[in-house]
Sequence to fold (186 residues):
Amino acid sequence: MKTVFLSASVPLPTRHARFYETADPVAIKEAVKSLVVEIIPRGQIVFGGHPAITPLISLIISSLFPDHSDRAILFQSLEFEGRFPPEVEEFPTVIYTPRHPNGLNDSLLEMRRQMIGDYKYDAAVFIGGMEGVIEEYEIFRKFHPNCLVLPLASTGAAANIIFEEGKFDKYLKKDINYSSIFRRLI
Fold:
């Protein structure tokens, strides 16, 4: 069974214009949907909770793959306790990481290290996003330097920045046939 790490978010207009200005929310949604549709029947996806991505993944799995809901492994930092989207309760496997005494940034860093370091991955997919997606990419590269990494630059935002700063196949820049990418490469 394949294990894929997903790092995705929808940039907010109130934070960091460099992410929001290049983001394509429709492409982000389509890329996440395609990943779930292609991977859940034959593998598992590990991801960190996000207010836009968690409900989307929950909806897709409950609609198309209710018997495979255990194949989405959700990480949540207790730093956000009381603010989790209600869909978090729909995931059979939620790993809650503790608050760090130094605050939010250290809490997220510990969650990311556990989420990325505790699994052997076949691939990592980076979709849209803001600074957290870039941080997860950097952590992922340290833990899994030889793993397949797919920054979907066509979704814009952080994924595009990762693509531009790295050495990746140019089809990831413009190809919007996400299902085909995942079927072919993962």
Observations:
- The mean pLDDT is 95.
